[in-house]
Amino acid sequence: MSAKINAVKGMNDLLPGAVGRWQELEALAREVFALYGYREVRTPVVEPAALYSRGVGEQTDIVSKEMYVFEDKGEDRLALRPEGTAGTIRAFIEHGAFVDGPQKWFYMGPMFRRERPQKGRYRQFHQIGVEAFGIAEPALDAEQIAMVEDWLSRLGVKTTLKLNSVGDPACRPAYLADLTAWLTERAGQLCADCRERTAKNPLRVLDCKVPTCQPVLQSAPRLLDRLCDPCRVHFDAVRAGLDALGVAYLVEPRLVRGLDYYVRTAYEFTSDALGAQSAVAGGGRYDGLVETLGGPPTPGIGFALGAERLALILEALGRPIPVRRPLVFLVAADEAGAAAVLKLSSDLRKAGVACDLDARGGKLARQFKQAERVAARFALVLGSAEVAAGEGKLKDMTTRQETPVKLAGLAAHLREAAT
Ligand code: AMP
Asked: CATH number of the domain at 16-170+227-316, out of 3.40.190.150, 3.40.228.10, 3.30.70.100, 3.30.930.10?
């Protein structure tokens, strides 16, 4: 045997035994998002690297440290997408979608970040996210947050919703100047990352998870106390909207989205079931981003949820993985049976009945073993006698009970039996 080749570190296979869970959460996302008027968009996995330098920011870890970048045969600098917002906005602008008024879009698919792999953190992971364009009013924020909550609660997942306002270009600069001064005074008590971020992106310091930084940052000045009137009004309206919709939240003054074009609403859903990587979904308003990426001024708000983390929560909850199994397994007793089984399986599938057979034929015991492996609900043995009579015995694989059935009406009979 040749040496085997394994998957790239931090990039996971999703095998058929586990994929049912993903299909379930994706199907529910499609269903729920449609109820709220969101429509699916599919964009490429590879984009110009410049899209992310501009759309996510050169200073962010995602772009400066974690992005997979490559030269396309010495021509363009391309990147594997590290997140979904920039590409979605690029498509929104490129196709002039803004002329059609407000739009609500969603996406799902793989993202790539060269992070240190651990539980809940991978180098290829999947996000399910939405972007809503063209509406600046807080009712949209409340509706979108309520939608995430709706989706998660239909899955039986309990999360904590954290909410904050990160202000806007009117109120944030003065606050940032004060914060920078405050952090600089306490540089000696902060970690190296925090000291570096104090100069580059002071808001992000508030987000630091290092235990020794936490008590220091606890008393940092709060942007929430310094919001300008329009930001205050917006924040209060989002809160009132959530209250009216019965969505519980915690105001978390240190929750930030680290990029300049994020304004006002920032939110995050977390779960205790995840350990260190507790963030399930993060979202926020980015009213300046469409313009930054070359489009007309267009407000927007979106979120992204990590599908692996949601799957981990469902697993921790002990929620069973939905399995699709054949309704009937056709077993061939002899040569005439083998031909009949092949034809009958085709007829059944055309009639919408999921069925399977063991194409190897051979011993009945082995075929029945295979029927058990694929968890078929019923089995039906066909040999020359059954073919001649046009009738066989349908065996319930759980109760072992056998019922005579006419082959002609089998599809209808099975559908009846399945209900
Ligand atoms: P972000 O785009 O960083 O705000 O992330 C949004 C969501 O994607 C997070 O809340 C996580 O659930 C998920 N996520 C981010 N990075 C990773 C990763 N490396 N592996 C798995 N999930 C991730």
From this structure: 3.30.930.10
